[in-house]
Amino acid sequence: MRRLWLLAVLVLPSSLSAQTATLMLSSPQAGQAIAPGSIVEWSIEVSVSGGDNEGLALVLVDLLQDAANPERVDLTPALVPVAMTNFSRPEGVSNPGPGGVGSGYGGTPSGAVGERDLLQIGGAQNTFGVSGSGMGTVVDVTAAVGQSGPVLVAQGSFVAPTAAGDYSYHLVEGVVNVLSVLGTAPGHSTAVSASVSSSPGTFSIEVSSAPQFVRGDCNVDASTNIADSIHLLSHLFTGPLVLSCDDACDTNDDGTLDLADAVTLLTALFDGGGPLADPSDTCGADPTSDTLGCVDFSECP
């Protein structure tokens, strides 16, 4: 059974519908092809409306794996951002951690081992004005949280599945309370429920068995610089020089290796030519289909 005691204690029905909150789920790996077993990072942010409330009082949301994912993994509990310690045990009010020890602010794992989602990520400020025992030890409520822009609620990571395919992860059951009346301890503050939307509430990745590389790192030395252009030019015009990863040297991603690739890289490095085609910042698979390959790129898994 899901633990909903946080809601029962802190939520008061709102007579108004003006208060709104937006939950946002993001990942730097979103939309990318990644290697099996690599690390997927994610973060959740929240913003609340201004002018009709005194800021965030409570935030809870589940992070679930899509039912159509080819394989499930364990989503591990998130870290508590420094700015949100007022919402996590012992300072704030949150679910208990595993075995009733510590804070469950980072989410309660749910499901069979190896397939666990995270339920009720988040927590609440102590709005009662009196200190609790082991929870809600901070009685001074912080106002205006989430009103000047999105605030980081949680940040975590998990190990990508091993089965190739498309994967999606979703925010569901989002609940946000905002402060309607800001009190001074030992007086209490009043919180009301806000209308919650998730935008974006999903991110997707592709787990690919294709070779991983970083475009532009032609000599595979973990950096992209003029030496990579020289390496490619040597291959093209002086030889014999065997490239270990043709895809990494195809800087313009046109499926061929020629002088234009050296020029593209030099332009990106020295003449404001803009970023190279993906994957250019982190390891990834080639998003386009061509005859080039990557025999060995030791800097990527």
What report would you give on this structure?
By secondary structure, this protein is an alpha+beta fold. The protein has 2 domains: 5-207, Immunoglobulin-like, CATH 2.60.40.680; 210-301, Type 1 dockerin domain (Orthogonal Bundle). 12% of the residues lie in helices and 27% in strands. It has 4 helices and 11 strands; from the N terminus they run αβββββββββββααα. The protein has helices at residues 5-10, 226-238, 246-249, 259-270, and strands at residues 20-26, 33-34, 39-48, 56-65, 108-110, 117-124, 151-159, 165-181, 190-193, 195-198, 202-207. The strands form 2 sheets. Strands 2, 4, 5, 6, 8, 9 and 11 form a 7-stranded mixed sheet that branches. Strand 5 (108-110) and strand 6 form a beta hairpin. Helix 2 packs antiparallel against helix 4. The longest helix has 13 residues, at 226-238. The model is unreliable at 1-5 (pLDDT under 50).
Concise structural overview:
The chain has helices at 5-10, 226-238, 246-249, 259-270, and strands at residues 20-26, 33-34, 39-48, 56-65, 108-110, 117-124, 151-159, 165-181, 190-193, 195-198, 202-207. The chain is of the alpha+beta class. Strands 2, 4, 5, 6, 8, 9 and 11 form a 7-stranded mixed β-sheet that branches. A 4-stranded mixed β-sheet has the order 7-3-1-10, with no helix packed on it.
List keywords for this structure.
single chain; 301 residues; Immunoglobulin-like; Type 1 dockerin domain; 2 domains; 7-stranded mixed β-sheet; 4 helices; disordered N terminus
